[in-house]
């Protein structure tokens, strides 16, 4: 598994990757909430320059993209989480997407396991993610990988407005 930080020259390719993912699930049961406003080119470039955007790109084709940092919306502050680490001891997963043609190949599981492994090496205490209401595939995926449901809250996001999100946490062993 070769998950690596994205390069700035890959910005347009990453944007096209996200657009293709959005287009491919447009007619599925789960309607994508991502649109031309998110993820957009400015956001992708900012995430690359912050060294937070990672891609899985075997054979010169992006198969998966993910943003990893410790930034979270203010709405997280009122949540009673499973753990209570300092913000720099938390890993937050954002904008995780896999090319639908590669679903079922355990790529997502391998990526999350790599994130868990790196988090442990870097003395992190918790991995957290919010999943937009209705994305049952993502909910099942994260629960299958041991993430525990914490709460459902409303979060305002520029791209989708005020929406319900399901919060999940994976506490890491000391």
What does the model show?
The protein is α+β, with helices and mostly antiparallel strands. Helices cover 28% and strands 29% of the residues. The protein has a seven-stranded mixed beta sheet with strand order 1-2-3-4-5-7-6.
Topology, element by element:
Blueprint lengths: L2 E3 L5 H15 L15 H9 L3 E4 L7 E6 L20 E9 L8 H15 L4 E7 L3 H9 L3 E10 L3 E11 L3
Parallel strand pairs: 4-5
Antiparallel strand pairs: 1-2, 2-3, 3-4, 5-7, 6-7
Helix pairs in contact: 1-2
Which strand order do you get reading across the main beta sheet? 1-2-3-4-5-7-6
Report the sheet-strand fraction: 25-35%
Order of helices and strands: EHHEEEHEHEE
Shape descriptor reads globular
Low-confidence stretches: none
Number of strands: 7
Helix content: 25-40%
Q: Report how far the terminal alpha carbons are from each other.
A: 26 Å
Mean pLDDT: 92
Radius of gyration: 15 Å
Structural class: alpha+beta
Largest sheet: 7 strands, mixed
Number of alpha- plus pi-helical segments: 4
């Amino acid at each position: 598994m070769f998950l690596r930080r994205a390069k700035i020259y890959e910005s347009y390719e990453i944007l096209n990757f996200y657009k293709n993912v959005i287009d491919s699930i447009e007619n599925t049961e789960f309607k994508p909430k991502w649109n031309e406003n998110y993820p957009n080119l400015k956001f992708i470039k900012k995430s690359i320059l912050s060294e937070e955007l990672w891609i899985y790109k075997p054979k010169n084709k992006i198969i998966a993209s993910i943003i990893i940092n410790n930034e979270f919306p203010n709405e997280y502050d009122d949540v009673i989480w499973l753990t209570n680490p300092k913000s720099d001891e938390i890993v937050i997963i954002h904008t995780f997407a896999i090319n639908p043609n590669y679903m079922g190949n355990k790529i997502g599981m391998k990526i999350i396991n790599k994130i868990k492994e790196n988090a442990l090496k870097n003395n992190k205490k918790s991995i957290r993610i919010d999943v937009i209401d209705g994305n049952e595939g993502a909910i099942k995926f994260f629960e299958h990988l041991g993430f525990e449901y914490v709460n459902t809250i409303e979060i305002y996001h520029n791209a989708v407005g005020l929406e319900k999100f399901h919060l999940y946490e994976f506490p890491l062993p000391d």
